[in-house]
C-alpha cells in the first residue's frame, strides 16, 4: 500500500473499528488513484485540434503554415513552463498545483474555443501551460505514492494518456459535425472540471499531511542541471518525444507519398497510437529491480529504429513497420517517465528533473516535425527525412546505456 494511502487513511480518522479502518483505507486508495484521471486529461485538448485545423483555418482565415505553428504552440509552452513548475509545487504543494492545472486547462480550452482568433492563440498557450504542470508533477506523484511499483504505475499512467489522446482525435470530427468545431474543442473542458471537483478531497487531505510534516525538509542535492545522469535522461526523453511527434505529424503524408490511400494512412496512424497502450502496460515487467532499466530502454527503442528502417527500405510493408514502431513508442514513453521518477532521489529533485527533461525534451520535439518537413521540402521526397529519422532513432538506442544504467552513489 502506498505511503500516501496510509497517511491519508490516518488523516481521515485515527479511531474506529477494523471495518471502519478498512473502509477508510479503501477510500484513501481511491484518492491516490485519482492521478490516473488527471492523466486522461493531459492530451485530449491537444489531439482534438489537429483533425479540426482545416475547419478552423477556413473559418478564422489562417493558412496551413500558421495552422502548423498553432499545433506546435503547446509543445513550446511545455518547454517554457516546465522548468518553473517545481517553484509552483514548493509554494502550493503538488495536489494544489494539480488542481490549479485542471482549472487552467478548463479555462484555456474555453478561451480557445469562443474568443476569436486572438483567443485561439491565448487559449492554446494557457492550455499548453496547464498541461505542462501536469506533465511535470505526475511523475513525482507516482514516485511518492507508488514508490514500490513506480514502473507499473507509470505504465498505467502512460496508457491513460494514450487512451485520452486516441479517443479525442477519433471523435473530434464526428463531434464537430454535431456541435461545430468550437463545441468540439470546448467539450474537453468538461472532464477537466469534473476531475478538478473530484480532486478537491485529495487536496484537503494532502494539505493536512503537509502541515503535520512541515518541519521535515528534503535533502538538498546539486542542481539537476549539473548532473550527467540528468542530461542522459533528458536526452532520452527528448529523442523519444521527437520520434513520436514526427510520426504522428508526418506518417500519413509519408505513406501517401509512397502510394497508400488517405484512408489507409489515417488508419495506420490510429494503429500506431493504439498498439502503444499494450506495450506501455507490459514494459514495466522489464524494469523491475535496479539493474534492468537498460534492457527495458533497449526493448522500447530498438523497435522504433527497426520500424523507421522498414518504412525506408520496404514501404510496401508499412502496416508491419507501423505496428513495430508503435509498440516501441508506447514503451519508450513509460521508460522515459520511469527513469525520471527513479533517478530523482527526493520529491523536489524528481520534480526538478521532470521539469528539465520535459522542457528540453518537448522543445526538441517541437522542432522535430518542422525540420522533418523542411528537409522533405528541400529534397523533394521523404527519403532524406527517413534517413535522418533513422539516425535519430539510432541515437536513442545508444542513449539507452547511459540513461538506463543505475548511477553509482552520488
Describe the fold and architecture.
- With 410 residues, this protein is an all-alpha fold.
- It has 17 helices and no strands.
- It has helices spanning 3-12, 18-33, 35-40, 44-47, 49-60, 64-81, 85-92, 94-114, 116-145, 150-186, 189-212, 228-257, 262-282, 293-313, 318-343, 347-379, 383-404.
- It is globular, with a radius of gyration of 21 Å.
- Residues 1-25 and 212-217 have low confidence and may be disordered.
> Could you give a short account of the major beta sheet?
none
Structural class: mainly alpha
Number of helices: 17
Separation of termini? 29 Å
Q: Please indicate the percent range of residues in DSSP E strands (runs of 2 or more).
A: under 5%
Number of strands: 0
Average of pLDDT:
84
Q: Helix proportion of residues, in percent?
A: over 70%
User: Element order, helices and strands?
Assistant: HHHHHHHHHHHHHHHHH
Radius of gyration over all CA atoms, rounded: 21 Å
Low-confidence stretches: 1-25, 212-217
The backbone outline, from C-alpha atoms, is: globular
